[in-house]
Amino acid sequence: MGPDASFEKRYVAHGHRFIAGVDEVGRGCLAGPVVAAAVILDMERIPEGLDDSKKLSAAKRKHLDTMIRDSAVSFAIGVGHVEEIDTINILNASKLAMVRAVQTLQPVPTLLLLDGNFRIDLDTEQVPIVKGDQKSVSIAAASILAKVYRDALMTQMDTDYPGYDFASHKGYGSKAHRIFLQSKGPSPIHRKTFQWTPV
Questions:
Q1: What is the mean pLDDT of residues 148-154?
Q2: Rg (the chain; Cα; Å)
Q3: Total-model pTM
Q4: pLDDT tens digits, one per residue of 13-27
Q5: Is 146:25 a contact under the CB 8 Å cutoff?
Q6: Are 84 and 189 in contact (CB under 8 A)?
């Protein structure tokens, strides 16, 4: 059973009009930024088939990405750059990306539904939800936008930094990626502070 709108409906009943789902992708990668999205869905126009982005095919994600962008009240993307990941660590860079996404939303949300067990550095009321992308349609929508955006970014990085096959593995530590990393050494977008196991 996929995510539903029960969290959103509960807080709408408590007086919240603009509720944003917030999620990030790319925390476990060896290369590339961490990307967050924030989405305020129109509760009357929720796209069919929203789910945790990891459970969807690339084609389904792209279709839903278009549907979300066409129907949402507002959406925004935030990025935590590789240099920030290496400086302040991946968790804090993820939180920073989430803050950047939320701060770009118009209208300003009155409540954030966050994927995870932490809060971010904003005064807005927040509800952390573990496995939120599998429970809340707003968080699922955010996970899809973040994943599609980051995948496109990593495909572009494959052109900018050839020889690592970023378009295929998107920076995750696949066997093929680690073989390229062993033979070529790190690129400018590899996370210097991340440990990885040689093949």
A1: 98
A2: 17
A3: 0.97
A4: 999 999 999 999 999
A5: yes
A6: no
